[in-house]
Structure to design on (285 residues):
């Protein structure tokens, strides 16, 4: 039986993963030191174990902890791991920056959820409100084998499918490609743009539009816009294309796609792991 050690088991993501792993047949050791996390595990009838007890003979060690803690925690855990075991992280940041210790006889695996898509076939209230996934709504996942052999990928993906269940698709990509997806595409670009959409709606409200009217209008139009761009349901009207071009010239600077360049990817992730550096960041243009 595969033995899994879940580090950070009482956190938000850790609890989601713990709930799903408990449905399977694997032996899971739950590791948590924060009082709030220990309390959340207690609500589930789970008693955490010490790090050294849970990690020393585990086949896979999952780090469900903040990105900023992975480097230091990995330095503590990797020496405890048995040969042939695997460390799994849930975000490419630390792996991309080279924060995982060098050790040739273990595997490194990265698995991240895509989250339930906007366009889906969910019908139950629980699934419709499961925005993050891992509870009731189906989602895809992306997986990357940073170090190891194909057999390592297969066992890592099998555990990732259980962790993020229900999973409808799994995509094998590289750590570098995952960094393009997050943070570049999903956080630096799309999350930033969504916050701008929220600010645009609030500005309309500040200028006198009733809140509920502005919200209904914004969310309804976002639904159409996503359908046009991603599902090709219909083209934008000629007048809308003019407005899009006007808005692009007013708001978007040339060269924004350079955010996918290797140096900018590194810079984005470095800023996320060391947020104090943001105050000294200078953007040209």
């Amino acid at each position: 039986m595969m033995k899994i050690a879940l580090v950070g088991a009482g956190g938000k993501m850790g609890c989601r993963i713990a709930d799903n792993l408990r449905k399977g047949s694997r032996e899971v050791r739950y590791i948590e030191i924060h009082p709030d996390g220990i309390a959340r595990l207690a609500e589930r009838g789970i008693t955490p174990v010490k790090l050294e007890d849970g990690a020393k003979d585990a086949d896979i060690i999952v780090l469900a902890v903040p990105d900023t803690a992975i480097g230091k925690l990995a330095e503590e855990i990797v020496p405890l791991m048995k040969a042939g075991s695997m460390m799994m992280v849930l975000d490419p940041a630390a792996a991309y920056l080279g924060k995982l210790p060098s050790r040739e006889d273990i595997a490194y695996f990265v698995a991240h959820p895509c989250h339930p898509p906007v366009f889906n076939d969910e019908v139950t209230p629980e699934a419709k409100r499961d925005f993050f996934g891992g509870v009731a709504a189906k989602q895809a996942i992306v997986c990357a084998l940073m170090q190891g052999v194909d057999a390592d990928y297969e066992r890592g993906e099998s555990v990732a499918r259980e962790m993020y269940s229900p999973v409808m698709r799994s995509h094998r990509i590289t750590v570098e490609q995952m960094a393009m997806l997050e943070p570049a595409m999903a956080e630096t670009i799309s999350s930033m743009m969504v916050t701008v959409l929220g600010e645009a709606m609030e500005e309309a409200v500040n200028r006198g539009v009733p809140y509920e009217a502005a919200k209904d209008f914004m969310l309804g139009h976002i639904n159409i816009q996503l359908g046009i761009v991603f599902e090709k349901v219909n083209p934008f009207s000629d007048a809308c294309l003019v407005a899009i071009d006007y808005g692009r010239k007013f708001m978007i600077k040339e060269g924004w796609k350079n955010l996918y360049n290797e140096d900018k990817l590194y810079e984005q992730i470095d800023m996320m792991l060391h947020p104090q550096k943001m105050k000294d960041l200078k953007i040209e243009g």
